[in-house]
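Exercise: predict the fold of this chain.
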Amino acid sequence: MQKAIFSRVDLTSDNDLLAKEFVSCIQDLIEVDDVQELKAFSQHMDTSRFQHSLNVSYYSFLFARKFRLDTYSIARAGLLHDLYFYDWRTKNNRPMEGRHCAIHPLIALENAKKACSINPVIEDAIVHHMWPMTLHMPKTKEGWLLQAVDKYCALSEIILQGSRKVRYSRAAVSFLTICSFATQIWK
């Protein structure tokens, strides 16, 4: 664990209070074998599922901190939201029938429950992080935040590794993602 993409903060630094606060929320999870195993799976282009989950965890934590939400739960949910062990691009090796966007949050939740204790905020954020690709919306502000940050990170990871034409759309994507989150959290 070094840093989240687009961040200058070294998460291993003992001198950075923000990094220490974030790491204190997820320290026990980072060492879990199942979480470490995510490094072996590609998520978006060359970004590993572990790096994607770390990105979602860190940026969700930062927004939750700014909006005075549950930073501990959202940091943990971000790290665990994609805790599944198959290549989502290949239909043959999925453990359940159905669309990946509908089944992987359920699988991730079951795996998260095996790895650590889960509270209702973490459960809501994991299960609903694929909204609006699934019908059920998040019930908590943290759930709304995590689903927006997950989409921002996925697009950023793709844009970071994509063509120049795709990179130019980054500002527009960032703006739309944040607007989507803001309209839902302050309803």
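Check your answer against the key: Residues 62 and 135 are 27 Å apart (CA to CA).
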